[in-house]
Predict the 3D structure of the following.
Amino acid sequence: DAGVIQSPRHEVTEMGQEVTLRCKPISGHNSLFWYRQTMMRGLELLIYFNNNVPIDDSGMPEDRFSAKMPNASFSTLKIQPSEPRDSAVYFCASSPGRSSYNEQFFGPGTRLTVL
Amino acid sequence: AQSVSQHNHHVILSEAASLELGCNYSYGGTVNLFWYVQYPGQHLQLLLKYFSGDPLVKGIKGFEAEFIKSKFSFNLRKPSVQWSDTAEYFCAVNALGNAGNMLTFGGGTRLMVKP
């Protein structure tokens, strides 16, 4: 199993540009999570999908952030327009289902730098 | 809402020293508990988890954790650390009754093991 796949691994962009991060969950997993990790705020949950439907997006910082999951094998996190304070590592994780007994499997992350 | 506290932000140990990392959570109901590890430059990986039964849980690489319900704690231990244990360690809680298997993470503890 290839695990959770994220692309790109690194992204450097200028303030004001649109950024799209991509995630392919583990095949058969029904739950997908987007996290942001910074030194100051640690690991924060941004949004959580189950069966492609957003369940909780209360962690999305503001309207500049949006996430979609058009099918079970693909999700995107978009930032438009990007700002320097969005610089962080963004992790995608997937889980076999909504049961609380299921662990989350993390991808390698996308390191985003906004200049 | 539940919260997770890891009071030790940075820990420095010599090889062969014993390790104990604190984790406390605030939630009065039933919880599932996890410890994840993030090695430098890598993604989060599950170390161990507690759902029910024996409160002393054994994980990979010689780690163990003890759930003490009366203290709302789930401390991570290892009798003898190695240089390769240098990493950041995250405690996470799933409060049963929330929307599926969302996790709340602690702020993390950075462990440095000196050779």
